[in-house]
Recover the amino acids of this structure.
């Protein structure tokens, strides 16, 4: 398989996922209990004629597939309709919330990678020693504890008890530190586990033994091990991104950060279906593209290694 | 005696996790005996601080004892996850075995379904689906089963494929032993441990997901005793009466960690044949 | 890189003990090596030969506990040194090693030239020439720019040798360096190592399970068994006058190809299996190309070929595990053919006791469970094993159970797909004897599929030679050995006979 076929295949798989996802998300509107037209008008009292009018206006009287294709055509042209709650254009409604979420996710990603990768390498190099077991247990605790519970406890002790951080809201970068730490704990813990395992595989590999037997300089051995371990670490980190966005939703609620997550949960509670559809789809696009790009980067870094083995995410 | 000696060789973390889970299981099985009137309101005793006589962790606005509610909340916090793990286990075993054993077209269909579901952000979908359908606790459980089963399908499928190419299974085929018997008597015993441990670990995943949904108000109804819900309700008064939210948070974290510790320990000791 | 430096090294190790998690794997070894010597360490798998050589360069697992006195050129060296100190005696002017498996010994993400250069000592970077280094191991200069995945097994092992030599070692250890390769490549690599040794006048240690190979390529031999050196001395002398039981066992087990008698021709007229023009491809790979063979009742036929020649695919087609693309398989026996696979560790279901496995086989063959004892005694299995699980059995015992299971349906044709090649030679011989007895007493035809010509010479009266998916030659075993016509067959026989 040459480079361009791999990239095309991978992106194609990504688009198939997104297409299916858009279908699933759109169908949920139909699964929602109650009359969608009534949902649209909210609690106002309306006549039957007015309801009919609303149905026609929003094309709710068309068959399901026709509505879906209409929505999809709109989506391709960046027209996602209007928020039911505020009657604003969806993009104008959502855009102000996006920045803070991306900041939060970005900071957490950098935090966790910078700390977790060296820690994982260190643990692998000291396999079986006390320090390795301590790192291991910490990683296990960090990866199994849910972000919102950890966030709440951090909030109570560090923001309220110790007053080290602001308690609520998105007033500047310092209010994002505690939420970012919360997100980094589980993300970082997963990366520590991955890095440690990937490095252990390389350390016990035959080529490492052969390099040691030839007294190759230690830093050259480490270089080779890191290069070979980087593929699995990168691939899995790409997959973890989905989880990161998932816990962001909850962590934003805990810390009352006005990001996409908070907006999504409040839209869900208010049944603001177009907003929910848009946010879910937008996050899915980001996650799918990010994971496709990591796969492509991994492939481009080491094309010769993958010639024989099919990439996990490659084919569909 | 033999078993007591064996316990001595277990790491301390595993023994502690085991003890913790035994206590939690008792809470789940017989809450009515341990805390008979957990949800009994007593407005005269509302908002007692932690450390009050008779109410170690204080009471809430409605005068309900926080400790009793935390104990009673374990049932709702864990039955859903156990249902998720069981449902996912059954679907995984069925579809995974079929896909792995028969291969070909049916395998491609099942695998395509699993790959597709896995490539979607499950927590986001769960929030959206549970939120929009809005059927409460058991609808959320059903959504989670659908979103989790692909992991189990994949796991069982690859374990069955590994088994299928083993010479002892091929020998069974050559002896013309019936398919159902090969699957149940020859393959299942070899993957049983793996799926059991995975079932156990899924309870922890389910616990985290269900309490997340309950925390967002998408699981149990308001006022009900459930760790995620108690955490959400307690968050309003976090800085005045932290016992409820912090207590629920600690219980969720400890349960998830204990299950993962034991599960991972079993995984390592089992040294399973995965592809 | 010329052989003009005088290579002298003296290695002396006394009372070496290695303990891994309470398991004593080496029990007081005395070993020495002097300049220019070619030393062989022979023993069965698990005898401790790899442990011994790995102790010499500090490459044992971290859990290993070592004790003993280790002297290099008269200077003592601490066996429990740190990695930093071990580096001083590895590679440059010290000891270098060739790994067993060329497919994993090289870094997959680095071109071969760079990997060879990695080990070149700093002070000699200036006068190191990669082309000369590759030429010494018989490779073209352009190999330097290739990744390991682009090379064949033989080429990779040559790169490994070049990389080991690039460190300018005074001693080269070859740990089963050819076991992972096919017979013809094996011979080429061994000749290469021998040539390099002669050219450089460099001492080597050859570790092998094959006493044959040791006889041909060493002057001094150490025979190991269960973590001890049982006998050592001049190779010819030891092999001619073995004193210890384990040496004798190794010798008697090794089938010295030249002296083996041919199996007698007992073929009968009655055709039992006829394969006609069978073809099969897996994707782009042709596994079988117009293959035809016949098997007659009660005879013993062999199919020989290297891995990848298609012989296993042929077996799987006959048994019905793989469908062919074209051609015809006709079977005239009353009961479907049975098979004994190669790997003793996966031929029995680990979840069941031996009794369960065999009773089930009888049950599905519509035979009463009472006949269990009959198949046990046919396969010469000890009754005591019945209540054990496969994990408690040795490789040989497992293969015997697999044979007993295959006997349950009273088949007319038994296929043995490399059934003994994973076992130690001594056990191999015992099982082959059992199979030969079975064939005679049960009037059951046996189809041996193997890469090992000596197995066929002892047991098969006729042989089919396969190469690259085709049958290139067939005839009576004697005819094939003494007057082969096909070029490939000739090369195969030449490579197998030392």
């Amino acid at each position: 398989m040459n480079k361009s076929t791999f990239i095309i295949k991978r992106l194609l798989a990504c688009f198939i996922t997104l297409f299916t996802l858009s279908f699933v998300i759109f169908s949920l509107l139909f699964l929602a209990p109650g009359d969608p037209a009534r949902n649209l008008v909210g609690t106002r009292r309306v006549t039957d004629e007015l309801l009919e009018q609303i149905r026609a206006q929003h094309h709710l009287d068309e068959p399901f597939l026709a509505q879906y294709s209409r929505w999809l055509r709109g989506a391709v042209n960046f027209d996602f309709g209007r928020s039911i709650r505020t009657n604003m254009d969806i993009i104008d409604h959502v855009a102000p919330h996006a920045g803070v979420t991306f900041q939060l996710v970005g900071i957490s990603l950098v935090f966790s990678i910078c700390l977790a990768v060296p820690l994982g390498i260190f643990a692998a190099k000291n396999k079986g020693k006390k320090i390795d077991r301590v790192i291991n247990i910490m990683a296990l605790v960090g990866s199994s504890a849910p972000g919102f519970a950890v966030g709440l406890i951090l909030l109570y002790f560090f923001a309220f008890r110790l007053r080290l951080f602001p308690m609520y809201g998105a007033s500047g970068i310092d209010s994002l530190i505690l939420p970012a730490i919360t997100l980094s704990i589980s993300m970082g813990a997963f990366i520590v586990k991955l890095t440690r395992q990937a490095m252990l595989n390389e350390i016990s590999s035959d080529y490492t033994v052969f390099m040691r037997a030839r007294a190759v300089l230690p830093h050259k051995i480490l270089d080779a091990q890191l290069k070979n371990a980087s593929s699995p670490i990168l691939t899995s980190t790409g997959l973890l991104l989905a989880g990161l966005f998932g816990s962001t939703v909850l962590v934003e609620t805990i810390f009352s950060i006005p990001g996409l997550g908070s907006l999504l949960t409040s839209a869900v509670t208010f049944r603001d279906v177009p907003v929910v559809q848009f946010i879910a789809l937008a996050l899915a696009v980001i996650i799918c593209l990010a994971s496709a790009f990591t796969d492509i980067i991994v492939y481009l870094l080491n094309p010769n290694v993958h010639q024989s083995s099919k990439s996990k995410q490659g084919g569909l | 005696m033999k078993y007591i000696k064996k316990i001595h060789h277990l790491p301390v973390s595993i023994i502690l996790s085991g003890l913790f889970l035994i206590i939690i299981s008792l809470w789940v099985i017989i809450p009515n005996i341990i805390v008979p009137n957990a949800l009994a309101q007593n407005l005269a005793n509302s908002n007692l601080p932690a450390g009050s006589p008779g109410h170690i962790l204080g009471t809430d606005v409605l005068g309900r004892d926080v400790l009793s509610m935390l104990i009673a909340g374990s049932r709702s916090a864990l039955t859903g996850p156990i249902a998720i793990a069981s449902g996912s286990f059954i679907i995984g075993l069925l579809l995974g075995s079929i896909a792995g054993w028969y291969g070909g077209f049916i395998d491609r269909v099942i695998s395509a379904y699993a790959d597709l579901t896995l490539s979607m952000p499950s927590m986001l979908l769960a929030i959206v689906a549970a939120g929009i359908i809005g059927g409460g606790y058991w609808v959320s459980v059903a959504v989670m089963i659908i979103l989790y089963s692909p992991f189990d399908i994949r796991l069982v499928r690859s374990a069955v494929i590994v088994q299928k190419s083993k010479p002892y299974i091929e020998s069974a085929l050559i002896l013309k032993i019936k398919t159902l018997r090969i699957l149940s008597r020859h393959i299942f015993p070899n993957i049983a441990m793996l799926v059991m441990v995975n079932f156990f670990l899924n309870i922890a995943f389910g616990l985290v997901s269900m309490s997340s949904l309950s925390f967002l108000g998408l699981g149990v109804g308001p006022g009900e005793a459930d760790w995620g819900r108690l955490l959400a309700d307690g968050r309003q008064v976090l800085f005045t009466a932290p016992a409820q939210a912090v207590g629920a948070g600690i219980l969720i974290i400890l349960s998830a960690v204990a299950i993962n510790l034991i599960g991972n320990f079993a995984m390592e000791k089992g040294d399973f044949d995965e592809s | 890189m010329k052989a003009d430096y005088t290579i002298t090294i003296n290695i002396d190790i006394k009372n070496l003990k290695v303990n891994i998690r309470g398991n004593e794997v080496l029990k007081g070894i005395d070993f020495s090596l002097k300049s220019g010597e070619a030393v062989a360490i022979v023993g069965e798998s698990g005898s401790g030969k790899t442990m011994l050589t790995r102790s010499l360069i500090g490459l044992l697992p971290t859990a290993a506990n070592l004790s003993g006195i280790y002297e290099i050129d008269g200077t003592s060296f601490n066996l429990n040194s740190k990695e930093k100190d071990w580096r001083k005696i590895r590679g440059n002017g010290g000891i270098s090693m060739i790994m067993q498996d060329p497919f994993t010994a090289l870094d997959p993400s680095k071109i071969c030239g760079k990997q060879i250069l990695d080990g070149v000592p700093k002070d000699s970077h200036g006068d190191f020439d990669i082309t000369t280094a590759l030429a010494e191991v018989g490779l073209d200069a352009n190999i330097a720019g290739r990744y390991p995945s682009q090379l064949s097994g033989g080429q990779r092992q040559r790169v490994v040798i070049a990389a080991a030599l690039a460190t300018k070692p005074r001693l080269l250890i070859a740990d089963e360096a050819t076991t992972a390769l096919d017979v013809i490549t094996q011979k080429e690599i061994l000749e290469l190592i021998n040539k390099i040794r002669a050219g450089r006048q460099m001492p080597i240690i050859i570790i092998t399970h094959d006493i044959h190979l040791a006889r041909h390529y060493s002057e001094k031999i150490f025979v190991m068994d269960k973590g001890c050196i049982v006998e050592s001395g001049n190779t010819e002398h030891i092999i001619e006058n073995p004193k210890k039981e384990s040496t004798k066992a190794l010798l008697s087990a090794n089938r010295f190809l030249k002296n083996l008698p041919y199996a007698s021709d007992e073929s009968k007229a009655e055709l039992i299996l006829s394969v006609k023009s069978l073809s099969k491809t897996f994707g782009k790979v042709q596994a079988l190309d117009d293959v035809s063979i016949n098997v007659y009742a009660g005879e013993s036929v062999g199919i020989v070929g290297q891995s990848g020649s298609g012989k296993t695919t042929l077996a799987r087609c006959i048994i019905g595990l793989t469908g062919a693309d074209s051609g015809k398989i006709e079977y005239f026996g009353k009961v479907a053919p049975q098979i004994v696979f190669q790997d003793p560790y996966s031929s029995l279901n680990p979840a069941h006791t031996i009794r369960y496995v065999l009773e089930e086989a009888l049950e599905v063959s519509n035979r009463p469970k009472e006949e269990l004892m009959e198949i046990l005694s046919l396969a010469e299995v000890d009754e005591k094993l019945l209540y054990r699980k496969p994990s408690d059995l040795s490789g040989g015992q497992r293969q015997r159970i697999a044979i007993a299971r295959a006997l349950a349906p009273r088949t007319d044709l038994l296929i043995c797909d490399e059934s003994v090649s994973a076992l130690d030679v001594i056990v191999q011989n015992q099982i082959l004897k059992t199979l030969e007895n079975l064939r005679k007493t049960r009037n059951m035809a046996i189809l041996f599929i193997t890469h090992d010509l000596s197995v066929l010479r002892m047991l098969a009266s006729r042989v089919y030679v396969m190469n690259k998916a085709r049958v290139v030659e067939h005839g009576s075993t004697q005819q094939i050995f003494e007057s082969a016509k096909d070029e490939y067959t000739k090369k195969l026989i030449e490579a197998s006979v030392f």
